[in-house]
Write the structure tokens for this entry.
Amino acid sequence: MSDSSPLDDVKADQASVAADKRPFPKHWIVLGLLLIANAAFGAYFNPNGKNSSEVGEKTAFMLTGFLCTQPFLFALWAAFAPHRFYRRFLWALLLCSLVAFAEELGTLLGNRNTYLGFGMAVQLILFILFTSVLLMVRRFFGWRFNRSQTEFMPSDYQANQFGIKHLILLTTITGIAFALIRSLRILNSFNRLPSVVSVLASTGFFSAMIIPIMIVPWFTMTFRGNTIKLIVLATVLLGIFDPLSFLIVQQPIPPLYFSFGEVLRDVLLMQLGGCLSVLLNTIVLRLCGYRLIRERKSVSSSQALGQ
């Protein structure tokens, strides 16, 4: 039986009806324009489509970091947005696929269309990976997005919320993603496919590079407080995962033998670009009324009686 009273059910139904009659929220227009801006920026400034004379080495690394954090941003929405899980996950997966595809097409603006589809595959793997991590953060620590304006939102975690129709949608979106990757492979000027080791090494490298950047939304989207703790945590993560990035770079066969200083410099440049990407996008989310809040778990009646 439900714990809610009939009066609460009536209020929820009235809120749901009122939500259906509201005009189209303006913040969705802003978020749509933000999505288009990210896709257009990635397509035009993708460093893989530029010659070395067109973009400097430092700028190329910063642009790479800027673009590689976009799967994390989609994962952030899929894990923390104030909607039912199936809705936010399916939309985030579809939009991440389309943006990654647009960015890959940007390489065709130049003459360096080698390994097309490789970057999109890595971005989708990063999206799944970070969505899983952030869902655990939401589940065990209670962090989620909340809008400043009160809205009726159904419960996030309900039994059997992922039904047959959602499974069909997931299969369809996955098929679209694979079809887009396949179309990029057809346009590839290289006949040789990247090895599995290269895909895993790239995924591991970019994951280690992005993990310290995951702290940025807590700076931009939470209320004031705990700034010192966040800075210490970010410093600790940098000290752990930046050396790990160097170890991952040495794994390809044959090893690349980059020096630690060179790898650390490149990783820091990519993290700087990634920080700018997450900073700008989360500031727009905050201006749209979204905040990161921590939802305290309520104490059950049996636990309360036992105290």
